[in-house]
Design a protein that fits this description.
Length: about 425
């Protein structure tokens, strides 16, 4: 073997190594976690900043990598062909084609890409500082290539529009689902993240306390009676009505009442409730939760009254209601224990009619629709189109709903049998 041949073989090996570097870098940088790189860059990691700069213009990055990769592969193949022709004659072309295809496939493509994909973040941090100057050096050529590609695509009518917010949200939802399926996220974390994304789609009317179950104070009641009602209530803010319950004239805060009592200890009957109430805040029932949350923060308020399109009182919503929509039920030492869902040994559930469908879906991973009704009783009424009798049952959405208790026209308790149990009972 001559010195020239040995140098050529060494050059081929170096070019194959460069090809592997380009292939592995492409895989690592495209598969690296953008949120993690952003976090590391914010913490001062220079390599992570390099990754962000490179991936910030993916077309330029991919163009530079492909240009470098193809250049070294073609050059390596040309050198190998030259060596083999000098050794075995014209048959060297065939030998070089077969040999270089296998070598490039294994050592310059599959091996580096497999290594990079197994730990994309770590590999990306390692290659980014080396790749940045290469991308900068190849930028003029890549820019010319991009211009040709852009003109060609535009002529073919395949121009790409800007990425929409809905597409980004769909990607985020898909990431949450994927992470949950892979075990990287526990159920309550998944539910919280999904709930945050759902805030713009849920209206305050869906989470409000209905006027039927609201605690309200009669402004004309005796101060002692008002005091007793406030003391018995688990709530710190109560609507105040005058003349009729629909006529809300203010909101009474328990602490304001306490201050007024302290100032009128000698004669409690002199206490004027209307002098300490705050002005009521009315919002439409169609207000999305994210807008209402923003309004609560702007007004530094915790309490709003819900009205329909005719101005009639529908209920009330609090800041805690919206927070619970994200984190789940919050119960403190002053809350009154609500009727809980009871799971029976046979797999069925006894559920109060006022329980929200979304809470059931989130707790048990059900997928009952909540577009037309907010509560489980409302779902049955909406589908049945009549007031069912006790003992009646309905098969809806793969579940069986049995009416267990009713008060006048209101369903107060149901027995719900999920899909598998419902099917098993039907087969029996």
């Amino acid at each position: 073997m001559t010195t020239e041949t040995a140098i050529t073989i060494g050059a081929i090996g170096l070019l194959i190594a460069l090809s592997g570097f380009f292939s592995g870098s492409e895989t690592a940088l495209t598969a690296a976690s953008r949120p993690r790189m952003h976090h590391l860059a914010g913490a001062g990691d220079r390599r992570a900043r390099a990754v962000e700069r490179l991936t910030g213009d993916r077309e330029r990055l991919i163009g530079a990598i492909l240009l470098g990769n193809n250049a070294v592969n073609i050059l390596a193949s040309a050198l190998a062909t030259s060596v083999l022709i000098s050794v075995v004659g014209d048959a060297g072309v065939a030998y070089a084609t077969i040999g270089m295809t296998l070598v490039i496939l294994v050592f310059a493509e599959v091996l580096p890409k497999t290594y990079a994909i197994r730990d994309a973040d770590r590999v990306a941090l390692r290659v980014a500082p080396v790749l940045r100057p290469i991308v900068w050096l190849l930028s003029p050529i890549v820019g010319a290539v991009r211009l040709v590609v852009s003109v060609t695509l535009s002529a073919a009518g395949a121009s790409q529009g800007p990425r929409t917010a809905s597409a980004a949200e769909e990607e985020l939802r898909g990431t949450i689902t994927l992470q949950a399926q892979e075990g990287a996220m526990v159920k309550h974390e998944r539910d919280m993240l999904r709930s945050i994304l759902d805030l713009e789609e849920i209206e305050v009317g869906a989470v409000m306390t209905h006027r039927k179950t609201m605690e309200m104070i009669d402004a004309d009641a005796a101060p002692a009676d008002i005091l007793n009602q406030v003391v018995r209530s688990p709530h710190t803010r109560l609507p105040v009505w005058k003349g009729e319950p629909d006529n809300i004239v203010g909101v009474l805060h328990a602490k304001d009442l306490l201050r007024a009592m302290h100032a009128n200890l000698a004669d409690l009957d002199r206490l004027d409730v209307m002098s300490i109430v705050t002005e009521p805040w009315f919002v439409p029932e169609t207000t999305p939760l994210d807008e209402q949350l923003h309004s609560f923060r702007e007004r530094r308020a915790h309490f709003a009254l819900i009205v329909d399109e005719y101005g009639s009182l529908m209920g009330l919503v609090t800041l805690e209601d919206i927070i619970e929509e994200i984190v789940g039920e919050i119960v403190d030492e002053h809350d009154v224990a609500l009727s809980e869902v009871v799971e029976s040994d046979d797999g069925s559930f006894l559920i109060p009619g006022t329980v929200a469908i979304r809470d059931l879906n989130r707790r048990y991973d059900w997928d009952l629709p909540d577009e037309e009704a907010a509560t489980i009783a409302g779902l049955v009424l909406n589908e049945a189109q009549e007031i069912p009798e006790i003992g009646e049952s309905f098969s809806l959405y793969g579940f069986r709903f049995e009416i267990r208790a009713r008060r006048r026209n209101q369903i107060t308790r149901l027995r719900v049998i999920p899909r598998s149990r419902a099917a098993r009972g039907h087969d029996a």
